[in-house]
Specification:
Elements lengths: L20 H11 L8 H5 L4 H27 L4 H22 L6 H12 L5 H19 L4 H75 L4 H27 L3 H14 L3 E6 L6 H22 L3 E9 L2 E8 L15 H11 L3 E6 L5 E8 L6
Parallel strand pairs: 1-2
Antiparallel strand pairs: 2-3, 3-5, 4-5
Length: 383
């Protein structure tokens, strides 16, 4: 009797950790716009030109350090030591510039509190915030005692907000990492289970083949006349073992179109891609659904990895005796879907489709992006 082994569906996804690097740089840059309000104070206080130039350079250095530190944290390109080293000049400027140029420059303190939440290790965010508040008390008391309370409150509020934001980012990153580890563990466990099942199944068949081969060898030496019958029995046993292996592998590789799309939804959502699914297809034959499932998995994986899309649409329908799967995205276009070498990717899927007398069309989508369409006949074509 044939045995069928199936992989349990998983939600393994390789997704980017943390917020978008480009988004963090843009957001930080926009957040620095209020710093421009301190520049007019340089002219109203009658500072000499060298002082003005030095202050502007310091302000540009402060802003550049803020953007660099935010980029470093979100992209994880530079380590913790770099961010701590970058925090030191920010602290010096946030204290020295208000004491040197006046109360308008106390605006740097809330920015310093926000930056410190990303610069220090996670366990040190609250102690760092306490230090920033202490510096705000010191600077406010020296520069503008009347507004020192509001400065301290603003510094504390901004610091707490960024500390919370940092905590959320770290938890999301840890959640994604844990999800990937669990998915890997599930796949590994399923592979081990499949290996054990195949060992048990083939071990029994191979043992029978070995025993009957020994019997046949003894009969041949003894000159018995039923050697051919034993050889025929061995041949039948080999065919049965081969059929069991084929049945097992077929069940192992069988996919559900609904399961594949549901699994891909999570991956696409983590990558920032919204998904719209329209399924108006009738019940599909098993081989057709399996092939369309492989195509959908490959197409949606390409959307995540290469398309740089923000939205994706999946449509499954039956029309005129054919099953049609169509995947479109609004990404960078067809160049990211070039088939890989050795029959991988879309090239390998094209072979599957051709084997079922279907066709696989890929190319630019109307209005931009990329479109993949697979069409498979629901009735077997003859000839």
């Amino acid at each position: 009797m044939g045995q069928t082994f199936r992989l349990k569906p998983t939600t393994a996804a390789r997704v980017p950790e943390g917020a978008s690097t480009l988004g963090s740089v843009v957001g930080t840059t926009i957040g620095l716009i209020p710093l421009l309000s301190v520049i007019p104070s340089l002219s109203t206080t009658g500072n000499p030109l060298p002082t003005v130039l030095a202050a502007v350079c310091a302000l540009l250095l402060f802003a550049g350090s803020q953007v660099t530190l935010a980029w470093s944290y979100h992209s994880a390109r530079l380590d913790q030591r770099f961010r701590l080293a970058l925090l030191i000049p920010l602290v010096v400027m946030s204290v020295v510039l208000p004491l040197w140029l006046g109360k308008e420059w106390t605006l740097l303190m809330p920015y310093l509190a926000a930056t410190s939440a990303l610069a220090v290790p996670a366990r040190m965010t609250l102690p760092a915030l306490a230090i920033m508040i202490s510096l705000a008390i010191f600077v406010g008391g020296r520069v503008d005692a009347a507004r020192s309370v509001s400065l301290v409150v603003m510094t504390a509020a901004v610091g707490l907000a960024m500390t919370t934001y940092r905590r959320i980012l770290d938890l999301n990153t840890e959640l994604r990492r844990t999800r990937r580890e669990l998915a890997r563990a599930a796949v590994t466990e399923e592979r081990l289970r499949f290996s054990r099942d195949m060992h048990d199944m083939l071990g029994h068949s191979l043992l029978q083949l070995t025993l009957h081969t020994e019997v046949t060898r003894r009969l041949y030496r003894a000159g018995e006349t039923d050697v051919e019958a034993e050889l025929l029995r061995i041949e039948n046993m080999g065919r049965e073992a081969l059929e069991r292996v084929r049945t097992a592998v077929t069940g192992y590789r069988k996919l559900s179109l609904t399961t594949v799309i549901d699994e891909s939804r999570l991956t696409l959502a983590d990558a920032g891609v919204s998904v719209t699914v329209r399924n108006v297809a009738d019940a599909l034959p098993e081989d057709i659904e399996t092939t369309l499932s492989w195509i959908a998995r490959e197409a949606l994986t390409n959307v995540v990895r290469h398309a740089k899309a923000t939205s994706c649409r999946v449509e499954i329908r039956t029309e005129s005796g054919r099953a049609v799967l169509e995947v479109t995205d609004d990404g960078t276009g067809p160049e990211h879907h070039e088939p890989g070498p050795g029959g991988n990717g879309l090239a390998g899927l094209a072979e599957r489709v051709t084997a079922l007398a279907g066709r696989l069309d890929t190319g630019p989508a109307p209005g931009g992006g990329f479109r993949l369409q697979a069409v498979l006949p629901l009735t077997e074509d003859v000839g």
